[in-house]
Specification:
Layout lengths: L1 E3 L1 H8 L3 H11 L5 E2 L5 E4 H15 L4 H8 L6 H17 L3 H14 L2 H21 L5 H18 L10 E6 L7 H12 L3 E6 L4 H11 L3 E6 L2 H6 L1 H10 L2 E5 L3 H7 L2 E3 L3 H10 L2
Parallel strand pairs: 4-5, 4-6, 6-7, 7-8
Antiparallel strand pairs: 1-3, 2-3
């Protein structure tokens, strides 16, 4: 029976009335009846669909895909994801720009950007790196894949400095050009409500110091895959660490972190972002 007003659905599910109306309008998730007075009445089945949609969103599905499954079309997204990851990997291996973008688009249609990073992009890049180390992937393939994925991942980062959350400044140490992991870290940090000021690859330490002085961020994260780059910037990085909470990642250890007055980040980008958020 349809007996619930939208406010009661909101109270029971924890979803705002505005968002419930948006899900109803965009995806047909809720299926209300009209009372004689003209207002909408919802059913227990509507409440169940909203609860299921929340579960699917927490699992990383995009809103449209979550609504489709919550509305009674339970075709699992995981097999499609795995197939699209394979298509993306195969397209990158044969330098097929169009097919690679199409596979990436299909992934984003089914999953949130963060889930695509965690479940597709980062594992694919790790596999590519391992193949390159074994001599099974060429430098050209690695460059093509990295540049294409970098462009797509930066697209996911658009607007990551908006909002009112804590701000983090992210930079690669001077001379360090491998930035995909740092971009993924920033997207994961943004998913926790943080704002990101991204200085990018090969950031001179003096440039980092100027930005930190101007912004007074809640965290500064510096990455280098060769510790000598961090050591070369050590004097300025130590000054930065006195001005704001400093984290270092990549080819670093606790001894270097202590020397710089920094904290060490390890693990993948998603886990590292969680560690920064948990620190306060």
């Amino acid at each position: 029976m349809h007996t619930l007003r939208i406010g009661e659905v909101a109270r029971r599910t924890g979803v705002s009335t505005d968002l419930l109306r948006a899900w109803e309008r965009r995806y047909g998730l809720l299926q209300p009846d009209r009372a004689e007075a003209g207002y909408r009445l919802y059913s227990e089945a509507d409440v169940a669909r909203v609860a299921r949609m929340q579960e699917l969103l927490r699992d990383g599905l995009a809103a449209a895909e979550a609504a489709r499954q919550a509305g009674g079309e339970p075709e699992p997204a995981a097999p499609r994801r795995d197939a699209d990851v394979r298509r993306l990997a195969e397209a990158l291996a044969r330098f097929d720009d169009t097919a690679a973008h199409e596979a990436f688009d299909r992934l984003l249609a089914d999953f949130t950007g963060l889930a695509v990073l965690e479940q597709a992009v980062l594992p694919l890049l790790r596999e590519l790196g391992e193949r390159w180390e074994r001599g099974e992937a060429s430098v050209a393939e690695e460059h093509f894949a990295s540049n294409l994925i970098r462009g797509r991942v930066l697209g996911l980062a658009r607007g990551w400095d908006r909002g009112g959350g804590p701000r983090a400044v992210l930079a690669c140490a001077s001379g360090e050009r491998h930035e995909l992991g740092l971009i993924a870290f920033g997207i994961a940090l943004r998913a926790h409500g943080w704002r990101v000021t991204y200085l990018g690859a090969d950031t001179p330490p003096e440039t980092l110091a100027v930005a930190v002085a101007a912004i007074a961020p809640a965290a500064v994260v510096v990455v280098a895959l060769d510790r000598r780059r961090l050591e070369g910037d050590a004097e300025v990085l130590a000054d930065v660490g006195r001005a704001a909470p400093l984290w270092i990642a990549g080819d670093a250890d606790e001894a270097l972190a202590e020397r710089l007055g920094a904290r060490l980040l390890d693990g993948g980008p998603i886990e590292a972002a969680t560690a920064v958020v948990a620190s306060g």
